[in-house]
């Protein structure tokens, strides 16, 4: 029997997931969305043909509820849902930091909850979604989450204790690469290239490097060594990166993201 899936909170990640599910073959008739604003509901209907309902209606009518509001809005959303969510539903949360216990405590006892940390490349079917079971979620519930998120990229099961780290790596990860591309494009401007050309050169270098990382099976150190000619250009750049502590900065940055995810666990942010 076809299941109905509702995406509650259809902002950046909610819409990215919704669009991916439709590309992966979900019928708009089997999908529901909730929004805070009616113009947003209309926009999503025009774009995807999906019906917009209230959170309470979504809880009553959908078999699977995907919660995609900000961690700070999660407590309020769960209060709205609680009277209507029965334990035969599957609740999937995509919110950073929010634990399955936080959600379970606010819903009908025994409601299965799965925590997922996706990332925005679900928009191009190259997402990374890290999945953990709450205390009432079975293997079948995890498989359902994998089916939904696996349609738009890779999935990985981890113990929930690793979710904050995964959030720092893959959840936020795309932003670090965009930041690097932005900075390297600025460097191209400094070196006298037109902005559009600098952008294209760096983006293609990033794509080429990413595909080699994924497909060659080689360690990144080996791939970097192959670029780094003796007394050449690359080693001059690497020395500057090390002088400026870029490696240490990245380690500290991801640690800060992990810590922020832990802080968000209270739902107050
Ligand atoms: N943006 C990203 O790359 C990722 C975000 N996430 C998580 O996804 C969640 C959403 O993040 P974004 O999409 O970036 O934020 P966003 O602000 O774009 O989307 C949140 C949406 O929820 C709506 N909303 C809030 N309360 C609502 C309610 N009671 N009923 C219906 N809709 C409601 C807001 O109007 C907004 O459209 C967060 O918990 C975040 O941690 C997870 C992975 C990646
Ligand atoms: O920045 C954030 O909090 C969200 C979670 C992971 C990516 N974006």
Automatic annotation (TrEMBL):
Coiled coil: none annotated. Residues 160-264 form the Pyrroline-5-carboxylate reductase dimerisation domain. Pfam families: F420_oxidored, P5CR_dimer. Keywords: Amino-acid biosynthesis, Cytoplasm, NADP, Oxidoreductase, Proline biosynthesis. Residues 4-97 form the Pyrroline-5-carboxylate reductase catalytic N-terminal domain. It is an enzyme of class 1 (oxidoreductase). The keyword Amino-acid biosynthesis applies. Transmembrane segments: none annotated. Its EC number is 1.5.1.2. It catalyses: L-proline + NAD(+) = (S)-1-pyrroline-5-carboxylate + NADH + 2 H(+); L-proline + NADP(+) = (S)-1-pyrroline-5-carboxylate + NADPH + 2 H(+). It is found in: Cytoplasm. GO terms for molecular function: pyrroline-5-carboxylate reductase activity. Pathway: Amino-acid biosynthesis; L-proline biosynthesis; L-proline from L-glutamate 5-semialdehyde: step 1/1. HAMAP family: P5C_reductase (MF_01925). NCBIfam families: proC. Catalyzes the reduction of 1-pyrroline-5-carboxylate (PCA) to L-proline. Belongs to the pyrroline-5-carboxylate reductase family. This is Pyrroline-5-carboxylate reductase. It comes from Streptomyces pakalii. The gene is proC.
């Amino acid at each position: 029997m076809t299941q109905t899936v509702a995406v509650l909170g259809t902002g950046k990640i909610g819409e990215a997931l919704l669009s991916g599910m439709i590309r992966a073959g979900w019928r708009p008739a089997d999908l529901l969305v909730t929004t805070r604003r009616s113009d947003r509901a209309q926009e999503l209907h025009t774009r995807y043909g999906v019906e917009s309902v209230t959170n309470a209606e979504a809880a009553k009518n959908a078999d699977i509820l995907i919660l995609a509001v900000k961690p700070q809005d999660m407590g309020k959303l769960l209060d709205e849902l609680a009277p209507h969510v029965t334990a035969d539903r599957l609740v999937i949360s995509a919110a950073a930091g929010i634990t399955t216990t936080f959600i379970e405590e606010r819903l009908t006892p025994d409601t299965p909850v799965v925590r997922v940390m996706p990332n925005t490349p679900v928009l191009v079917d190259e997402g990374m979604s890290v999945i953990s079971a709450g205390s009432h979620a079975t293997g079948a519930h995890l498989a359902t989450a994998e089916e939904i998120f696996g349609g738009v990229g890779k999935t990985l099961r981890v113990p929930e204790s690793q979710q904050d780290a995964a959030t720092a790596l893959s959840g936020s990860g795309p932003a670090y690469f965009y930041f690097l591309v932005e900075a390297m494009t600025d460097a191209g401007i400094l070196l006298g290239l037109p902005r559009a050309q600098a952008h294209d050169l760096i983006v293609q270098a990033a794509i080429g490097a990413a595909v080699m990382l994924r497909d060659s099976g080689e360690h990144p150190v080996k791939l970097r060594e192959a670029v780094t000619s003796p007394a050449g250009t690359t080693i001059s750049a690497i020395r500057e990166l090390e002088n400026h502590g870029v490696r240490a900065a990245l380690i500290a940055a991801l640690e800060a993201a992990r810590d922020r995810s832990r802080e968000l666990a209270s739902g107050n942010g």
